[in-house]
Design a protein that fits this description.
This protein has 25 helices and 15 strands. It is an alpha/beta fold. α11 packs across α12 and α14 crosses α23.
């Protein structure tokens, strides 16, 4: 079970003044908003009164039980109110038959097929959302209050009658309802396709029904209120992908966010998930930054820390093995012969987060690359399967190695695979390579920063930055491969550009929120403030910039080159 899908078992009673001691004992990483507001109740009441005339902001949390997402959004709700915004909150109250909160790893298919999610997860999910939002006494909305009986019946009928093959591409006007329902189903199975799941059709129909209900509820809410902006996590899957579709169509500005890699940091983006916006971000926002030795030292120091993950709250090995020479000898690699490194994504994750480019999906890219290298005995291909297949927030149920073995039961002698469970350091392995090939992994940002030439076959964030060899067609991809081995590192100018982008990516796009500190539990952070004034404007520059971006549409960029780097 992933850490963000573990349910809390004890939450605050619905009445704010009924606070048993067991509640706080079982939720040590949850904010006690009532007590925090009591540190300056006049300030809070004055802020709420003033906010009645302010811009309306929808905090569309929806899935309250995902505390790594709902907990920061409760902090944003308070911070935005203190800055004059009239914040509305949105929660699903046991309405959706399937959603982001469900995974086959912890929710059996029968729970969804029999409409039993309410008794399995929904009650706890709603309680967590209420625990976080009710003490704030803002304008709260529930899905059930936004849906008519006719709309519920319509969603059920549509989900039952539309041919399953048509669901993925089903749209209501401009709302790509089916796409997000299909994405949610893939995420539920943690698989790159549904062909190996015999009960997947009925599960897809449950996600489709939930997506339809979300679309109807969101549309009704937007008709009732003049929201300036809607802020919510991820921006993909169901319900959040649907909420974004409806908001954009109704000209409500969208802000999406997600937990970043660095501790205390988060990535925010305008109009769409950062998985997409980082691909299209203009290079002008970073390429002309004045580059100093101090900045170069800071990014190199941080990139080295990622080998062990000491400054991150997302990493995949507790003690990575950096003695690659020993591992190479064990698997039969010849260190005197050119090695080309290939880094994979998690199969289902890659398909959801990135647009396919030269190849229809990551598996096709891997298989065609193996076929190419089978005809290049002068090179060795080292495939490092992503450790997140087994250690990610949603462990994959469609691992890559068995898919490779279906086509290549006997690998060519010059092709080697490091499986996801191997403790070998990916970075140490890539340093030993002549060059690297990636599909969608962000590791391309790191590899180029240490001079490793990189070919991009998919939609990695390093693509289009003037740093890598970016293939747009299979023909172009294989032309890049024909140039291997390169036998040299990146030239000085390209290396500088790579480090400049890495600085921008890790230090400027990842925005720190000081009150959210690392916590040795689940979720891996908690709100650490002692009084309400710590969330006022001027108390935390990162929070100020985020709130300003939400309210005014300004860029979500933290000027680390001016404000400094938090190394905690």
């Amino acid at each position: 079970m992933s850490w963000w899908n573990r349910l809390v078992t004890s939450v605050r009673p619905q009445k704010q003044n009924q606070r048993g001691p067991s509640t706080r004992e079982n939720l040590p990483n949850f904010p006690d908003w009532e007590s925090l507001l009591d540190t300056n109740r006049p300030l809070w009441e004055k802020a709420k009164k003033k906010a009645q005339r302010g811009p309306q902001v929808l905090m569309a949390t929806a899935v309250g039980g995902l505390s790594p997402l709902s907990l920061p959004e409760s902090l944003l709700a308070v911070a935005l109110t203190l800055r004059g915004a009239k914040v509305h909150t949105l929660l699903c109250d046991r309405i959706l038959p399937a959603c982001l909160y469900t995974l086959k790893l912890d929710t059996p298919e029968t729970v969804l097929t029999n409409y039993e999610l309410d008794g399995f997860k929904c009650q706890h999910c709603l309680k967590v959302g209420r625990y976080l939002y009710e003490p704030l006494e803002l304008t709260n909305h529930l899905f059930s209050e936004l849906l008519s009986d006719e709309e519920r019946a319509k969603a059920k009928v549509l989900a039952a009658q539309i041919p399953s093959a048509e669901i993925e591409n089903y749209q209501i006007g401009n709302w790509r309802v089916g796409e997000h329902a299909y994405a949610g189903t893939l995420r539920y199975y943690a698989s790159g396709n549904l062909s190996n799941e015999p009960d997947s059709e009925v599960i897809l129909r449950r996600y489709f029904e939930g997506a339809l209900l979300t679309a109807f509820a969101t549309n009704n809410l937007l008709q009732q209120h003049d929201f300036r902006v809607a802020c919510f996590n991820h921006g993909i899957y169901s319900p959040h992908g649907i909420i974004g579709e409806v908001c954009r169509d109704r000209h409500v500005r969208v802000v999406n966010w997600n937990v970043a890699y660095r501790k205390r940091c988060f990535i925010f983006s305008h109009e769409d998930t950062y998985h997409h916006t980082l691909l299209s971000e203009p290079v002008e926002v970073w390429e002309n930054l004045p580059w100093t030795p101090a900045m170069e030292s800071e990014i190199l120091e941080y990139l080295k820390s990622r080998w062990q993950g000491t400054r991150d709250w997302i990493w995949f090995h507790e003690q990575p093995d950096e003695e690659f020479g020993k591992i190479a000898r064990e698997i039969g690699l010849d260190l005197d012969k050119p090695i080309i490194g290939l880094l994979t994504n998690v199969m289902w994750d890659a398909q959801l987060h990135y647009r396919a480019n030269a190849f229809p999906n990551m598996l096709a890219w891997v298989l065609e690359t193996i076929a190419y290298f089978s005809q290049r005995p002068d090179l060795q291909l080292l495939i490092r399967i992503h450790p997140a297949e087994i250690r990610g927030t949603v462990p994959s149920r469609q691992p890559l190695l068995p898919e490779i073995m279906k086509v290549w039961p006997q690998l060519p002698d010059n092709i080697f695979i490091v499986p996801p469970e191997s403790p070998v350091s990916t970075y140490a392995a890539m340093v030993a390579c002549d060059s690297a090939i990636v599909y969608g992994t962000k590791t391309g940002v790191e590899l180029t920063s240490i001079g490793i030439p990189t070919i991009v076959g998919g939609e990695a964030w390093i693509r289009g930055k003037g740093i890598t060899m970016d293939a747009s067609t299979p023909q172009e991809y294989f032309q890049f491969l024909d140039r291997l081995p390169l036998r040299k590192r990146l030239d000085e100018q390209t290396l500088k550009r790579a480090r400049l982008y890495a600085y921008h990516f890790f230090f400027r796009r990842m925005m720190p929120i000081r009150p959210l500190e690392p916590f040795s539990g689940k979720p891996p952070f908690k709100i650490n403030i002692s009084n309400l004034e710590e969330l006022l404007p001027g108390a935390d520059p990162g929070l100020d910039l985020i709130c300003d971006g939400i309210l005014s549409g300004s860029a979500f960029i933290y000027p680390a080159e001016k404000l400094g780097i938090d190394k905690n």
